[in-house]
Design brief:
five-stranded parallel beta sheet; about 45% helix
C-alpha cells in the first residue's frame, strides 16, 4: 500500500477504528479522512454516497457498528440488527459506487454456530443454529460478509471480511450495562478495590470460555491482510488460546489488586459455551499476535485509570 493512499476508517472513534487509525498513522499513512457522527451519519445512505463521491477513498475499512456485550445484544435485538444492516449496507454500497480499490469488512466470531467445533474453522459458517443472545448482531454480520462476497462475485470487487475474536484495549466501552466482559470486570474490580468492598459480582456461572485479543494486535492483523489477502473467503483473527470467565475474573482481580470474593449472578446468561477461533489460515500467511493477555489487561487498566476512572 502506498503511504499516500486515501484510507477511510468508518467508525474511527470506536475501540477497533481508533486502534486502526493509530496503527496506520504509526506506519506513516497520513491521508485518512475523518468525520464525526455529527458530520456524517453512516446509516444515512445519501449522505454516505455524497461523502464517498467527494472524498473518493482508495481503501475502506468498515469498523463502524453498533456493538455491545451479552446483555446489550440480548436486550436490543432490533437496534443490533437494523443499525448494523443500515451502516454496513450504505458504506459497502457507496464504496462500490465510488470504485474503491479494496474494502475490509469487520465481522465477528459470533457469526459461527453456538456449538461449532473448537477451535472454530472458517468453514463452520452457516453450519448450525446461532447463539440466541447475539443472534441479531450475528445475522447482520453474516449479511455483511455475504454482501462483500456478492460484490466480489458479481463485480470483481476486492472486498475482504475478517472475523476477530473477543477484543479489548484502549477506547473500550466501560459502561457496566453495555460493555463486554473484560472491560466490565476491570471496572468492577477497580470500583470494588476503591470502595474496599469484600465482593465482586460476576455474571453467569464463570464456566464459559472466551478468547481475548488486544485491539492493537487486531489492527496489525488488518493492515497485514490489506497488504497480503485478496480473497472473498472469510478469515479468522485470534490469539490462539482461550480461558474461562472465572480465570479471567481472577486474572483481572490480580492485575487491579482486588483480593475479595467473586460472587456469581446466575440470573445473567452465560451465552455461548466456548468461542475459540482456529487461526491456522492467518498464521500460515505469516502473521502472529504479540500482546499476551496479562500484559494487555495491565495496559488497558492503565488506560482506564487515566481516561475513565474518576
Ligand atoms: O463479553 P460478553 O458480554 O459477550 O460476555 P459474549 C462474555 C461472558 O462473560 C458471558 C460473562 O458468559 C457473560 O455472562 N460475564 C461475567 C460478563 N461478568 C460479566 C459482566 O460484568 N459483563 C459482561 N458483559 N459479561 C459477545 C456478543 O458475546 O461477543 C457480541 O454479545 C460480540 O455480539 C462479542 O460478538 C464478541 O462473548 O458472550
Amino acid at each position: 500500500m502506498d503511504k499516500s493512499e486515501k484510507i477511510f476508517v468508518a467508525g474511527h472513534h470506536g475501540l477497533v477504528g481508533s486502534a486502526l487509525v493509530r496503527r496506520l498513522e504509526q506506519e506513516g499513512f497520513h491521508n485518512l479522512p475523518k468525520r464525526d457522527r455529527s458530520q456524517l451519519d453512516l446509516a444515512d445512505e445519501r449522505a454516505v454516497h455524497n461523502f464517498f463521491g467527494e472524498e473518493k477513498p482508495a481503501i475502506v475499512i468498515v469498523a463502524a457498528a453498533r456493538v455491545g456485550g451479552i446483555k446489550a445484544n440480548n436486550d436490543y435485538p432490533v437496534e443490533f440488527l437494523l443499525d448494523n444492516l443500515r451502516i454496513q449496507n450504505s458504506v459497502i454500497y457507496a464504496a462500490h459506487k465510488a470504485g474503491v480499490r479494496k474494502l475490509l469488512f469487520m465481522g465477528s466470531s459470533c457469526i459461527y454456530p453456538k456449538f461449532a467445533p473448537q477451535p472454530i474453522p472458517e468453514t463452520a459458517l452457516l453450519n448450525g443454529p446461532l447463539e440466541p443472545t447475539n443472534e441479531a448482531y450475528a445475522i447482520a454480520k453474516i449479511a455483511g460478509i455475504k454482501l462483500c462476497q456478492a460484490f466480489s462475485r458479481e463485480y470483481g470487487a476486492n472486498f475482504i471480511s475478517v472475523m476477530p475474536t473477543n477484543l479489548y484495549g484502549p477506547n473500550d466501552n466501560f459502561d457496566l450495562e453495555t460493555s463486554h466482559v473484560l472491560a466490565a470486570l476491570l471496572r468492577k474490580a477497580h470500583e470494588a478495590k476503591s470502595r474496599k468492598a469484600r465482593e465482586l459480582v460476576v455474571w453467569g456461572s464463570g464456566k464459559p470460555r472466551r478468547e481475548f485479543l488486544h485491539v492493537t494486535d487486531l489492527a496489525s492483523a488488518c493492515l497485514f491482510l490489506l497488504e497480503k489477502y485478496d480473497s472473498p473467503e472469510i478469515i479468522n483473527i485470534g490469539w490462539g488460546e482461550d480461558i474461562s470467565i472465572r480465570e479471567l475474573a481472577e486474572l483481572i482481580c490480580d492485575v487491579v489488586g482486588f483480593d475479595g470474593e467473586l460472587v456469581w449472578d446466575a440470573t445473567k446468561p452465560d451465552g455461548t459455551p466456548r468461542k475459540l477461533l482456529d487461526t491456522t489460515k492467518l498464521r500460515a500467511l505469516g502473521w502472529q499476535p504479540t500482546i499476551p493477555l496479562r500484559q494487555g489487561v495491565a495496559q488497558t487498566y492503565d488506560w482506564f485509570l487515566k481516561n475513565v476512572a474518576g
